[in-house]
Amino acid sequence: MKRPPSILLFLAALFCLGTPMLFAQTGQAPTFTLPTPDGKTVSLDQYKGQIVLLDFWAILCPPCRAEIPGFIDITNKYKDKGVVVLGLSLDKEAGKLRRFVEENKINYPILMATKEVQMAYGNVQAIPTTFLLDRNHTIVKKHVGFTEQAVFEADLDELLRTQPPPGPTTPAAPTAGEPSTAPASEPTAPATPASPALEATASDPASPTGQP
What we know:
This is Thiol:disulfide interchange protein. The protein is α/β, with parallel strands linked by helices. Helices cover 27% and strands 17% of the residues.
């Protein structure tokens, strides 16, 4: 029996969305250790203390590819503020993925996601799906479908207001009664407070199992 066209359109939209939907989601982000296309391994715990944009994507998903230039730009603009983008690819061919990364000059880590990681993050089916993690790796936002770079940057700027990048460490002042360690002939200058960081500011369906 032939399925109605509306059902087919719904299924196609489920697997690879071209319009954004925003879902509020909280909780600790599940940790993972995954391989890169060149055979190394990367763990989410390596980025503890950093804000993370965690993007589930695949090469054959046009909205996923459309987001990549924005992630490259975000990496350049926010890397000094303790922000990192991690791309979790659902592709299974390491060689093909490695060539894609090189050809597109992707400057952020690309990892090969497993079914277990997909399930741990709520059984990710529609891509792109991007999670925003704070510095404690608590999930604070989740975007499903193509999302404009400006939206990601607004999210990051908002989070950076409450979790600014750590500033330089100022030496502790001597306690009362303790002599200063500075030479008497060279009086020390008063410590300058760290200045706050400046804020910067279709349609091939992708397989939910990560097989394009």
